[in-house]
Amino acid sequence: MHTKGNCCCSFEDYKLTTEWLMNQTSHRPKVAIICGSGLGLLADGASNKQTFRYQDIPNFPISTVPGHDGCLVFGTIEDRSCVFMKGHFHLYEGYTLCQVTFPVRIFKLMGVELVLVTNASGGICPDFKVGDIMIIKDHINLPGFAGQHPLCGPNDERFGIRFPCMSDAYSKDMRSVVVDISTELGCSDFIREGVYCMVSGPNFETIAEARMLWILGCDSVGMSMVPEVTVAKHCGLQVVALSLITNKVSLDYSREEKVNHEEVLEICKMRAELLQKLVTSLISRFNQQQIINTN
Ligand SMILES: O=P(O)(O)O[C@@H]1C[C@H](O)[C@@H](CO)O1
Ligand SMILES: Nc1nc2[nH]cnc2c(=O)[nH]1
C-alpha cells in the first residue's frame, strides 16, 4: 500500500482487492454485514457460502482479537447475496483508520448498497440491561475530535465529498423496520435505541470517564464501528447498526463488578441466535424493496 497523507491506501489498492475478490466469487452482494466481537455466528445462517481468510485477501488487514474469526464470507440469505465480515479491525490493534475502514470501500466498489453493523458495547444508560440490543440512532466520534478520523487526508472524490453530512448516518426508516421486526419476533422487550460513543480502547472506562460520557449524552460505549459508518456514509451507503449491551458500565464507585472481554463474548453467544433472526429478517425486508433507497 502507498502512503498518501494520513491515508495508507490508494484507489488502485481498493480496486485491486475488489477485482481479486470479484474474480474468485460469483456472488454480487448488495448487503454487507460487519460482525462485531463474538458475533461471527451471524454468517452461519447463509447458504452457498464461500469463505476467504483475511490473510489470503490482497491488502486486507488481519484480525488479532479473540472473538474475531478473521474471514470474509459470501453467502445467500433470503435469495439475496450478502457478504459477512467475521471480525473487524480496531484502532487499539495498531491499525490506521484507513486500514480499519478498508473493507467498507471494497464493499462500495463491489456494488453493496446497505451496510449492517453489529458490535458489543457497555451500557451507560442506567435503564439498559445486559443482553439488550441497542439500535444505534447516532454516535459520538470521540477519537475523531482528536484528529483520529478516517476521512482526514486528501479526499478522493470517487468515494465522496470533502465535507459529508453525518446528521442522518443511521437510516430512520431502517431503524423503524428493526422495531417492527422485533415486535414480530416477540423480542421488543430487549430492544432499545440510543447513542453509541466510540473510544479508542483497549482499556474499559474508568468511572470518571463513564460519568463524563453519560453527561455528554452517550447511552453505550464501545471501541469500534464509528470509522466504518463514517466511511460508509461518505461513499453513499445506507447504514443500520445494532449494538449488543454486553455489560453495564459502572457510574458508581461503590459497584464491585469488573468488566472483561470473556464476559463480553459470553453475552454475545447468548444473544447470537436472536441477532441472527433480526439480521435475517432485515435482509429479507431489504430484499422485498420495502426499505431500499428510502433513506
Ligand atoms: O469489536 P466490537 O466493537 O464488537 O467489540 C467490543 C470492543 C472490543 O473490541 C471488545 C472489548 O470486549 O468488545
Ligand atoms: N469501551 C468499551 N467497550 C466495550 N465493549 C464491550 N463492553 C464495553 C465497555 O464497557 N466499554
Automatic annotation (TrEMBL):
Which superkingdom is the protein from?
Answer: Eukaryota
One Pfam family in the UniProt entry:
PNP_UDP_1
Q: Which residues form the Nucleoside phosphorylase domain?
A: 30-283
According to its UniProt record, this protein's enzyme class is: transferase
Name a GO molecular-function annotation. Answer: purine-nucleoside phosphorylase activity
Q: What is the E.C. number?
A: 2.4.2.1
User: Which key words are in the record?
Assistant: Glycosyltransferase, Purine salvage, Transferase
Which InterPro entries does the entry mention? Nucleoside_phosphorylase_d, Nucleoside_phosphorylase_sf, Pur_Nuc_Pase_Ino/Guo-sp, Purine_phosphorylase
Instruction: Identify the metabolic or biological route this protein is part of.
Output: Purine metabolism; purine nucleoside salvage
Mind naming one GO cellular-component term on file for this protein? cytoplasm
Give me any GO biological process, just one: purine ribonucleoside salvage
Its catalytic activity?
2'-deoxyinosine + phosphate = 2-deoxy-alpha-D-ribose 1-phosphate + hypoxanthine; 2'-deoxyguanosine + phosphate = 2-deoxy-alpha-D-ribose 1-phosphate + guanine; guanosine + phosphate = alpha-D-ribose 1-phosphate + guanine; inosine + phosphate = alpha-D-ribose 1-phosphate + hypoxanthine
Give the family from UniProt.
Belongs to the PNP/MTAP phosphorylase family.
Q: What does this protein do?
A: The purine nucleoside phosphorylases catalyze the phosphorolytic breakdown of the N-glycosidic bond in the beta-(deoxy)ribonucleoside molecules, with the formation of the corresponding free purine bases and pentose-1-phosphate. Catalyzes the phosphorolytic breakdown of the N-glycosidic bond in the beta-(deoxy)ribonucleoside molecules, with the formation of the corresponding free purine bases and pentose-1-phosphate. Preferentially acts on 6-oxopurine nucleosides including inosine and guanosine.
Q: Which PANTHER family match?
A: METHYLTHIOADENOSINE/PURINE NUCLEOSIDE PHOSPHORYLASE, PURINE NUCLEOSIDE PHOSPHORYLASE
Q: What is this protein called?
A: Purine nucleoside phosphorylase
Gene expressing this chain: pnp4b
